[in-house]
Amino acid sequence: MPSLDHARDGPELADGSTMLTVDRERIEGAEGPMGVTPSLDFDSVRLVEVSRHFGRRRAVSRVSIEARRGDLLGLLGPNGAGKSTLIGVLATLVQPTSGEVRYGGHFARELGPPLRRQIGLLAHELHLYTELSARQNLTFFSKMYGLDPRSTVEPALERAGLADRADDDVAGFSRGMRQRLALERALLHTPRLVLFDEPFTGLDDNAVGLVSARLRRLAADGAIVVLATHDLDLAEGLVTRVAVVQS
Amino acid sequence: MSFATTAFLVLKKDFTIEVKSGEILYTTLFFAVSCVLIFAIAFVREGQPVEGAGAGILWIAVLFAGNLALGRTFERERYGETVRALLLTPAPRAAIYVGKLLGIVALLVAAECLLVPMVAFLFDAPLFARPLLLAAILGLGTVGFASVGTLFAAMLVRSRTRDVMLPILLYPITVPVIIAGVLGTSALLQSPADEPVALLWIWLLVSFDVVFVTLALWTFEPLMTE
Fold first, then answer.
1. What is the rounded CA–CA span in Å between residue A134 and residue A131?
2. Contacts of B84 in chain A (CB under 8 A)
């Protein structure tokens, strides 16, 4: 498994705001169906010279990066470097100020809902309704993705280890339980592109191990996995390719 | 997934949360009732209310309560960033807007069901003389106000100044709806009720609603993209 030795300093940009280098090593044997036949499919996602400014503040500047099926790409860098902005751009939630995002042969703006059906996002904020139970959260999002809750919710609860707490409100869950539930919520629709933004925050060693194992399995099953984290120790030994984002 | 199914799912989810917590319904009703009671203390002297005040007071209570409900409804989506999760689903984004809009409208209609008898009693206002016309004016006015309010509340969900910005943006833009609602209701409170004038304001409210809802549906997706 490649390690953080693959991280390299890239050329400093003219404005000096963001520097990013990607090791283009490709892991082998990562082909494989995701279980559900998607209406839109792509084998790679590519950012080309993407910049995003919020007013006069540059969040990211001229970032180019590519990830392919089977990759577990680590976006590494300190807090405030722009990792979350890049995740937002990849998730189609943040519009780049300039540059382009390509999913396979398609531009993001051409696709809309079929593309969003292929994206799963687990962010630091867990995207769960704390007033609802675990089952109600999964059922709601399952329906929002056009899935049959009868075939998706129970297996997801089992994978999250929450089958016996399925009808308890999320508000009463520990951080680790919420994180496991949020992970299953993000993966309910077996997305092709899986984005994780600081997924290990607040987790104990056991939970970190479970999440890491799930990430590896996703990549092995043929998903494109992008993991943004500032924690180099956790990323080491987990990611297969590295992009370093610097302020 | 169809537009109507998505809107219904979002509405049902909000309803389920509200049934469990009761947070927004109770605070909105309490605020609206308090508002009317304060006006009653100020404008009723020796059992005689100020003439013609009922229509304005009813609408002020509805609008203030609406502002509170809008803020709280989207505060719920901000916590845990669930609004991003909704936007990331393949569901039509305009349908998410419609689902939220229907929830706000239902909440305000519940408040109005309490406020109308209160105002009628405290301000000696014949609000039940033309119940269908009153329901039309209140319903259409509520949809017009809530359509703009839902759009702005969603836009401001990630803004730190959302509590200040929402009323600043919302009230000036909904002035046509507010004027039509107040004057239409006033026409019904006259003795005898001025039905032709009330109908004129109803048609104007229909026009405002069509414009506001169409604009909101059209702009929701681009405005929600960061």
1. 10
2. 93, 121, 123, 125, 127
Q: What is the pLDDT of residue A39?
A: 59
Residues ≥6 apart with Cβ < 8 Å to A42: A103, A104, A105, A106, A118, A192, A193
- In the predicted model, is pLDDT for residue A19 greater than 70? no
Closest chain B residue to the Cα of A114, Cα to Cα = B90
**How far from the centroid of its chain's Cα atoms is residue A154's Cα?**
23
> Which residue out of B82, B88, B96, B220 would a mutagenesis test of the A interface target, given it has the greatest number of A Cβ atoms within 10 Å?
B88
Q: How do residues A109-123 score in pLDDT, each as one tens digit?
A: 767 888 888 899 988
In the structure, how many helices (H) and strands (E) does chain A have? 8, 10
To the nearest whole Å, the CA of B209 is away from the closest chain A CA by 28
Integer Cα distance of B114 and B223 in angstroms: 35
The answer on pLDDT for A140 being more than 60 is yes
Give the torsion through C-alpha atoms of B200, B203, B209, B210, to 10 deg. -140
Entry pTM:
0.83
Of A125, A145, A185, the CB nearest to B90: A145
Phi-psi group of B32: left, alpha or beta (phi > 0 → left; psi -120 to 50 → alpha; rest → beta): alpha
CB distance A196 to A122 below 8 Å = yes
Q: At what angle do helices A175-187 and A205-220 cross, to 10 degrees?
A: 10
Which residue in the set B9, B16, B84 is minimally distant from A144, CB to CB?
Answer: B9
Strand pairing partners for A76? A229, A244
**Per-10-residue mean pLDDT for chain B, 226 residues long?**
89 92 89 91 82 88 90 82 89 91 93 91 85 93 93 83 84 91 90 86 93 90 78
Residue B121: CB atoms within 10 A of its CB come to 12
**A131–chain B nearest CA distance, Å:** 6
Task: Give the domain ranges of chain B.
Answer: 3-224
Q: How are beta strands A119-122 and A19-22 bridged, if at all?
A: unpaired
Give the distance from CA B140 to its chain's centroid: 10
Query: pLDDT tens digits for A213-224?
Result: 888 888 888 889
Is the bond into B192 cis (omega within 30 degrees of 0)? yes
Reported ipTM: 0.85
Which residues of B are less than 8 Å from A117 in CB distance?
Answer: 90
